[in-house]
Design goal:
By secondary structure, the protein is an alpha+beta fold. The protein has a six-stranded antiparallel beta sheet with strand order 1-6-5-4-3-2. A two-stranded parallel sheet has the order 7-8. It contains five helices and eight strands.
Length: about 190
């Protein structure tokens, strides 16, 4: 038996309930950011510097150092205190974060005794998409890079469609850290 439409709304009760349910399902299905932790700091240290003993080094950048780093890297230094470890061979392991599209991405960067990138690991990714920056092939393009050339997205770092802002900000963060090595860490 078909119901007559409600003269006030122009639709019957079934259409109203179905439409409301579809609207609510659409709202709850909206993509939400979630934090995904892939590695701890210790796990990243073992991946980037296997078999090495790393010692935590307190590094606090003064205002002049932060300005110099920002000038040469073209990237603002948001935190004065570095989370840094050093090996007996002069290698550096730094835990840092950059902004993805909306949320922070925690990453670890290893630098050899000459300031060249030895590896990058994504520790925590909080965005709902763009997690492809964890791809080992994408991260491998940073190996051997140092402060001598400012890295840019698409020159020489390849972009990942759908993760453009994460790619750009990780690239900028690596620039900032290699210049931090050149300006400060190389003499410690």
């Amino acid at each position: 038996m078909k119901r007559a439409p409600d003269p006030r709304s122009g639709m019957n009760r079934r259409e109203l309930v179905t439409g409301t349910a579809a609207l609510l399902c659409g709202l709850f299905a909206w993509p939400t950011a979630r934090a995904e932790t892939y590695l701890s700091v210790e796990q990243a240290q073992r991946l980037i510097f296997p078999g090495r003993t790393l010692t935590r080094v307190p590094v606090v950048l003064d205002a002049a150092q932060r300005r110099r780093i920002a000038t040469v890297s073209h990237e603002r230094v948001r935190q004065a205190e570095l989370r840094a470890w050093k090996s007996d061979a002069g290698e550096w392991f730094i835990v840092d974060n950059v902004i993805g599209k909306h949320e922070n991405i925690d990453l670890a960067v290893g630098l050899d005794s000459q300031g060249r990138v030895t590896g990058i690991e994504i520790l925590t990714y909080r965005e709902s998409y763009g997690f492809e920056v964890r791809n080992p092939r994408w991260r491998a393009q940073f190996r051997g890079r140092d402060h001598s050339r400012l890295l840019k997205l698409d020159d020489p770092i390849r972009n990942i469609s759908g993760a453009t802002l994460s790619c750009r900000h990780i690239t900028d963060g690596v620039n900032r850290l290699t210049h931090t090595w050149n300006e400060v860490l190389r003499s410690l």
